């Protein structure tokens, strides 16, 4: 700690020594000025701390410094009466200053704790409501009964009530900040030191036993000393109640603090009662003590389950967000440090669970947790487990250099092998880094941003760290808007189908229509599938999109059947993600039955990547074909399937991608590739369909190569159902052909 940061401690020690001397030395005209001098020093310290610390909640500290100044002014006035051997009137100007000081102090702590949550208010109320009752019984009610002038009674009542309000606000602020910082402890201790002598003075004044210069005056002097020390403390600018409400778990320590206060009040009530009332008070005290002891252990167990991860013992998500709210509240106003989140996700952890079992996976997670805990700054950083293989490091009071060091340590130390059941595993971790110096930042949004950066790290190659920036925020916001708008589009009928004909090259007749979905966006116009289908796949709405397209297609087929007496076969694209969905087959078959459509009227187009999954081929696709639904492999040649997969005969047609078809009329190499693809399809008894036919030369070459069907802008661009209806009406030769060869 720098030398200048100890000023608060020297001030407190020196002031305490002087205050103690005032109590022990005989009272005279010289020593009587020690009392106002000590109290004035507290006000001066508060103003100095306010100027040096530049706290965010400047108004609260300004009101507190002003309250100390008014209280010190009242002490000076009383010392003046003593100097001139004059009897102080009641109420006097000093009493007015004291009341104003109480009101300002109450406003200061209310301002300081105005973001405090409901839990802190309830717990502060648990302590102050019994005090308020004691105040009424012992101070306020006797004062009202004794009578006197209205002004005198008002002053006598307002002072203890003001002290009670100050204490409530201080307890609320302290419980909200959980006394994490030394200034918080000094602040609450100062308010308690203000409350106790005020309570004593109210009692002594009623029974005429108050004598100046006694030990109780030490409490009045400790109050400005403690509050002045709180203002001078270097952590004073970080003394802030969190702006965001966090889950407040009633810890054992917090519970004991509240219960100790309640039991103290019960003990006071028992001691001050008379006769049978005293026996009742003692019985209540014993009962409350036994209840407090009984609930301590279950409370500790519940608190542990609510805040700790059961497997690793690390803080869980709830506890992480709670600590993050405090870290944000304690950010300095000058931006000298930041709060950082490092979102860590193990790479390929699912493979460990799938191959070795969950017990091995748990062992690995415990080891990883230990490695992460060993990679952070000692005593300052918090390591939490969110669940699964996700861990988060919270770094309060961090710099960008600090986060870079920890992130680099994470991605390098994880390369060391872990041996589980004799098997060597080489884990790696992807890390997303999010930092902020904005105390108003939302904890949930910060965590989401760190998660976004982590996925960037995975996309960029895994085993690395990525830092979140504004570009990520814009992209994340755009994805969120797209997700909301797409879900509304599904519900509001903004999605519609256009159709692209596939023509049989031998007869010139219609082979099939490919249905392509379009989104008629209310502000962005007509959107193609590339602009929203990938999002639908990754955000869990691709199934809804497929069902909508399937219903539209079969409904339109119903219209064509009614008008022309036949159903043009229509191809509908299926996402690889849907092929593992057990609902796909029932949805397809039920929809066909609903429209009384034969399975041969439907072709499902799957991309080549679907061929790599044996379950998909032997399960989903085999079942669909067994029911008469045709299957075509779309964009053939662009994936990574082996040719041997095609021999399994779970398809009816191969669609040769436009990247191979384009330019075959003038490029022998491309022509050779397409020739081989057509020959492969025919050898497997599959139809070969060429995509991207743009001109007559390409079409002529495809006929020469023996291609079965073609699709492209040479015939027409994708058009709506009305245009297809017109084409069928004008071209009777567009008679339907079977979906399969």
From TrEMBL:
Residue ranges of domain GGDEF in the record: 337-470
Which keywords has UniProt assigned to this entry?
A: Membrane, Transmembrane, Transmembrane helix
Pfam families named in the record: EAL, GGDEF
| Transmembrane parts of this sequence | 7-25, 31-51, 63-84, 96-113, 120-137, 149-171, 183-202, 214-234, 255-273, 279-295
Gene3D superfamilies tied to this protein: 3.30.70.270, EAL domain
Looking up PROSITE patterns in the UniProt record yields: EAL (PS50883), GGDEF (PS50887)
The family database entries (InterPro entries) matched by this protein are listed as: Biofilm_reg_signaling, EAL_dom, EAL_sf, GGDEF_dom, Nucleotide_cyclase, Rev_trsase/Diguanyl_cyclase
The EAL domain covers which part of the protein?
479-732
> Which top-level group of life is the source organism from?
Bacteria
What protein name does the entry list? Bifunctional diguanylate cyclase/phosphodiesterase
Origin organism is Paractinoplanes bogorensis
